[in-house]
Amino acid sequence: xxxxxxxxxxxxxxxxxxxxxxxxxxxxxxxxxxxxxxxxxxxxxxxxxxxxxxxxxxxxxxxxxxxxxxxxxxxxxxxxxxxxxxxxxxxxxxxxxxxxxxxxxxxxxxxxxxxxxxxxxxxxxxxxxxxxxxxxxxxxxxxxxxxxxxxxxxxxxxxxxxxxxxxxxxxxxxxxxxxxxxxxxxxxxxxxxxxxxxxxxxxxxxxxxxxxxxxxxxxxxxxxxxxxxxxxxxxxxxxxxxxx
Length: 244
What we know:
- The chain is α+β, with helices and mostly antiparallel strands.
- The chain has two domains: 14-168, Helix Hairpins (Orthogonal Bundle), CATH 1.10.287; 173-243, no CATH class.
- Helices cover 75% and strands 7% of the residues.
- It has helices spanning 3-81, 87-168, 173-185, 208-216, and strands spanning 191-195, 198-199, 221-222, 229-231, 238-239, 242-243.
- It has a four-stranded mixed sheet. The protein has a two-stranded antiparallel sheet with strand order 5-6.
- Helix 1 runs antiparallel to helix 2.
- The longest helix has 82 residues, at 87-168.
- The radius of gyration is 42 Å and the shape is rod-shaped.
- The chain starts with a helix and ends with a strand.
């Protein structure tokens, strides 16, 4: 095997690790954004529940004020009834009092309805507040884990990039150019093992003379079909448990 072959294999391994780290680093902010979006959705739901409860309470206050106003009117009308001089005046006052009392009963009925509606609204708000509090803690924990993981991945990424740079420096410029060209063409799969006389990447058989040349390991060689670097590991024979 040519001495540079192991370097090419090593550099390919570095590139695969770099790709994995870069992918994970890019994914983590998306993960944070997703959980924050969920939290924002729950926040909006809580605000809607609070708004509904607040509207319920405001309407109850309005109805209570209406009842007080109606009762004051009835009190005045009753005082005025005492001064009625004819039956028609008396009946007019009475009719107006009856009408206002009906309005009071309507307001009281509506208050009862609002009180009945407020119980589940209040329960929803309390439940949502408790759930949101727990979720905020969970989200902060998730964000902390994601930030720590990103920092660790970035450290590893920098380390691997440094090792890759050092390994590339041990190859000739011509080999480096060939490596980068093949990596771009074949999505990072730069070197392929020859198994049973075939390139394991494209499965095309090598010419016998070319295969023999590869086995001698005197130079870096490329697959004549797919263009990848080639390497060959000769099979080991074992006799009596001892490698020969």
